[in-house]
Amino acid sequence: MTEKDPLIQPPPYGPPPPQNPGYLYPPQPVPAPAPQVVNILPTSFGESSVACVCPNCHKHVTTEVNFVVGTLTILISLIIFLLICWPCFWIPCVIDSLKDVEHRCPNCKWLIGKHKRL
Ligand SMILES: [Zn+2]
């Protein structure tokens, strides 16, 4: 292959576009930044429902509260079982004020936050 081969040579281009050195393009409008979805989550969850934006479905919701057995519940049950009266070990498992609190999205059931007693 040589430089003179007409099959390999690039096709002839037209004359270069005229340069306009004195012409300045108008400044391009800067696109506005896309609005960001800010997940406004409370810093701490308590025992009552909280209004926030769900991080999963991005809807403004009031959390659904569920009481679940947590560390404090098990610890008190163990103390009752070992030291006080073993047949009564289950009592802390039915007292909501000894349980952890889960905050879930009522729309998608996503766990948004949790309030732990311990
Ligand atoms: Zn959700």
Automatic annotation (TrEMBL):
Family that this chain belongs to: Belongs to the CDIP1/LITAF family.
GO cellular component: late endosome membrane; lysosomal membrane
InterPro entries documented for this protein: LITAF, LITAF_fam
Membrane topology, record value: Peripheral membrane protein
Biased composition (Pro residues): 8-22
Pfam family of the protein (one): zf-LITAF-like
Domain annotation LITAF: ranges: 34-117
Region (Disordered): 1-22
Residues that span the membrane, as ranges: 67-89
Keywords: Membrane, Metal-binding, Transmembrane, Transmembrane helix, Zinc
Protein name per the record: Lipopolysaccharide-induced tumor necrosis factor-alpha factor-like
Any one GO molecular function term: zinc ion binding
Keyword Transmembrane helix part of the UniProt annotation: yes
Main location: membrane
Locations listed in the record: Endosome membrane; Late endosome membrane; Lysosome membrane
